[in-house]
Design a protein that fits this description.
The chain has a single domain, classed as Alpha-Beta Barrel (TIM Barrel). The chain contains eleven helices and nine strands. Strands 1, 2, 3, 6, 7 and 8 form a six-stranded parallel sheet that branches. It has a three-stranded parallel sheet with strand order 4-5-9, with helices on one face. The chain is globular and about 85 Å long. About 16% of the residues have low confidence. Bound molecules: zinc ion. The site of zinc ion (ZN) has 5 residues, from loops.
Length: 261
Amino acid sequence: MLMKKILSCLLCIILIFALFAANAADIPKDTEIFEDVHMGLTSNTEKQVKKIEPAPSVVDPSKPMIALTFDDGPSKHTPRILDMLERYGGRATFFTVGYLLNAHSETVLRAHNMGCEIIGHTWDHSDLTKLSDWEIKNQLVSTSNAIKNITGTEIPMYRPPYGSMNERVRRVSGELGFSTVTWSLDTKDWKTRNVQLIYLAVMQSVKAGDIIIAHDMHGTTADAMEYIIPALVKQGYQLVTVSELLTDKYGSIQAGIVYTN
Ligand SMILES: [Zn+2]
């Protein structure tokens, strides 16, 4: 009898230790960095879901703005970024590669319906400075048309792959009515492919009015956004599209101009 009691006690202790160990394994190693946002991500309880504010549908000019932008998609990782934007209330801009659009048309339409912007990043990620005038026009127009076929909207902007451009690219794109959008804060996510480094690249230097470049073709970027999006919202930034940010800053967006922020 006594032996049975001792055995069941031991079993209880082992179970309690096993539970603690399982919980500890869920927490990222660098708790200092992630502590603030981590709590909101591990639990999907009713209580957590109710805490989150609904996405603001209009821009509040009194609140600092950030434009999160994602290049080289759409990809299988894009929906996870949309989930986070939906959950924490925000929009982003996707600079998409033309030939990838049709395979991900549902994701593109979802993003568009959420108020995100879908803009071209050329048809096949070409370096525009190496193309003829006619080829540059073809890259921009074909991508813009493919976007319009899905969303019904075309936005006269583009982002040059590799940020590679010159006076001729600016002029030729301007003749088509396009403006060029680059960025002011580089996450270097394509290079580091590391959640903590991507998080730090943003959170250590972000300021109001930044256009942040990341790449939704990488899983690690979607992982990092699970921390970055809540952290930016917590710091009081509203996540707007590039057009919203530029219109607020300059009043209007002009063809043939290169916008960095
Ligand atoms: Zn690119």
